[in-house]
Amino acid sequence: TMELSVLLLLALITGLLILLARGHPKAHGHLPPGPRPLPFFGSLLQMDRRGLLKSFLRLRDKYGDVFTVYLGPRPVVILCGAEAIREALVDQAEAFSGRGKIAVIDQVFQGYGVVFANGERWKALRRFSLVTMRDFGMASGVWRGMVKEKPDSVIEKDQGALQDPTLIFHSITANIICSIVFGRRFAYRDPDFLKLLDMFYQSFALISSFSSQVFELFSDFLKYFPGTHRQIYRNMQEVKDFIGHSVEKHRETLDPNAPRDFIDTYLLRMDKEKSHPNSEFHHQNLINTVLSLFFAGTETTSTTLRYGFLLMLKYPHIAEKVHKEIDQVIGSHRPPALDDRAKMPYTDAVIHEIQRFGDLIPIGVPHVVIKDTKFRGYIIPKDTEVYPILNSALFDSRYFDTPDTFNPNHFLDANGELKKNEAFIPFSLGKRICLGEGIARAELFLFFTTILQNFSVASPVAPEDIDLTPRECGVGKLPPVYQIRFLSR
Questions:
Q1: Binding-site sequence positions
Q2: What is the pLDDT of residues 327-341, one digit of tens each?
């Protein structure tokens, strides 16, 4: 790749100039140990060409569960394994509650919206989002509507056609978020809806790409050049325009006595706080919060389902046992309901294992410490970034017998009942735990069981030849592209 070599050469020259100008990096606080950084380039020499996750796991072998890496010029504390992550995010929840940046999308959010906000802004938006999502999500009829819309209405009518399931899973998950946020569902053939989904899908792949990981190291310098960050920015601006138009329409038809959805509720709160000069309920936070919920709520669940069905194709005996449990507990005459989950430990264990093995956000979303923080005998200075490596908990051999194998027994006790596991933290932990966790778990259960109640799945590839190697593994982990047949049962 020509542009990459040119960029690296430029980076080298600039680096050398900065090096001459600056001398050696000064010691920060009393950070955990780690490889000795070069000025400007940081720990570049210790980085693995296969990306950040592989680099961190390799350094863990040398430095243990808690160490410091320099991503370019800035120090980042890396936490590995379920215990270190829990000690930081739960036992010292407040200190570790800040949100760090992800370089390629920093331009998009700029610290606004519930996911990337900090301080009072974050607290206000999170409280509001949790209550409002609950009112229009779990507590409303959104689930009844969802199950009414049987997946067979989305899955191609021509029985058994080979298809890439990406769009199916995208549409059904996006429509849940759409009904909560926009108060409407989209027709599956709606061109605006399809375009929106495509933007999300492409952006998640770009954010997780190798070049975005290089950008994470040298964003101050690389942001002046073309690259994936510009494509992501363009995509996200388009989604923001879409949200903006929707907000205008909501504004024109707003009824203060009957808010229809998240946007209405937010607009009413905005009106209420109009006279507060420091209110966080303004337009900028609305657009970015909706973007966050939309992106986080669509991409994650649909990617997990995509991994899940690939795993069902690879392990047909597991799919068979799920079919059996569905037939015993639900039968074929009614759609699955959330109450069924408690009576279906095997299916629930399979879904847990799909989430563990799918490892959707392997390096976690960055945190920062909001004050100088003592941790395991070190001192982490205020505003230092901290990466909780969720992958290292989900694959922690102290908690899972066969971490590298897909094995639902990880979540079953001797009696075949569901068992909790401390290292199962796909939604992260602490004050920044995913605010859509309840909705996501409900969606995964209902979609997974509804599809398998109605269909069996088949692959053009023999199970032993199905490759599970991810297509991208950066901020997110994406399953490989594959083809599937849905056959009516």
A1: 434
A2: 999 999 999 999 999
